Amino acid sequence: MRSKALLPFFDSAYQGFASGSLDKDAQSVRMFVADGGELLMAQSYAKNMGLYGERVGALSIVCGSADIAVKVESQLKLVIRPMYSNPPLHGASIVATILKDSAMFDEWTLELKAMADRIISMREQLFNALKIRETPGDWSHIIKQIGMFTFTGLNSDQVAFMRQEYHIYMTSDGRISMAGLSSRTVPHLADAIHAAVTKLK
What we know:
CATH architecture of the largest domain: 3-Layer(aba) Sandwich
CATH class of the largest domain: Alpha Beta
Subunit structure: Homodimer.
Organism: Aegilops tauschii subsp. strangulata (Goatgrass)
Strand content: 5-15%
Structural class: mainly alpha
CATH superfamily of the largest domain: Type I PLP-dependent aspartate aminotransferase-like (Major domain)
Protein name: Aspartate aminotransferase
Strand order of the largest sheet: 1-2-3
Family: Belongs to the class-I pyridoxal-phosphate-dependent aminotransferase family.
Order of helices and strands: EHHEEHHHHEHEH
Number of helices: 8
CATH topology of the largest domain: Aspartate Aminotransferase, domain 2
Radius of gyration: 21 Å
Number of domains: 2
Catalytic activity: L-aspartate + 2-oxoglutarate = oxaloacetate + L-glutamate
């Protein structure tokens, strides 16, 4: 990135959901900050704090000098003013309260780890269920991917088949929410995927 003079832009929408650790999930961004170069990072609290309706987040920009920072801030103000000028305060106040209170922060990180572990468990259960059914294909991507969603690799015809025959709904490109699964629903999903893959290639 640096040798090609590229400006990295990180999208941190799932911090804490990937591994269960805020620090581990921030490692790549911190590596770029530590090398002294410039970068942009969009950070969202919509998912990891359950604040979807509030759309809470931040854009952080690391500049090479104070002079550049002043110029960047000036340009950002030109963009922000006509878009929203003063953002909603409610969601940001919730996030600030949790981040500033050590007891609340500790509770949040424990809950975040529990959610991440649950999503990882759903991935493992689905992978194992497909393996047990000897579903054609390599399904290792299910346990290699991170976050709340998985691209299954199913095509639009297979997705339509699953919707029609099994009442399972996902985007036409096969993207599903792992957070929406439970140990009770994994077998049904695995049956549907197996049927879709074996009947429609």
